[in-house]
Recover the amino acids of this structure.
């Protein structure tokens, strides 16, 4: 599973942030690694660097899944790392639901 991280001009996209995102997403979605080919991570600060508001950091994840349309989730939080973690948990739930629905169809 490839994890691609991009940031807006208000969030520095340094190596530590990329490694954090790759680790959190890779560990959380490890059981789906045979299904998920790529996860695109889009990080943004919706207010900007000169102002601060509660939950102004946004993480949008788009998972590319073999045989399916991409799935997307978004999470807002006070910090970039919390937004990544929250979005990852949401994506994990969505993927779990997808797998369960596929298993139900097979069972008939």
């Amino acid at each position: 599973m490839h994890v691609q991280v991009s940031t807006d001009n208000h969030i520095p996209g340094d190596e530590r942030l990329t490694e954090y995102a790759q680790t959190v997403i890779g560990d959380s979605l490890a059981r789906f690694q045979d299904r998920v080919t790529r996860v695109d991570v889009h990080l943004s600060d919706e207010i900007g660097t000169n102002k601060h508001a509660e939950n102004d950091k946004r993480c949008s994840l788009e998972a590319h899944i073999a045989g399916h349309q991409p799935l997307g989730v978004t999470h807002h939080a006070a910090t970039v790392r919390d937004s990544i973690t929250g979005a990852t948990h949401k994506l994990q739930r969505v993927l779990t639901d997808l797998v369960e629905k596929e298993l139900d169809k097979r069972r008939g």
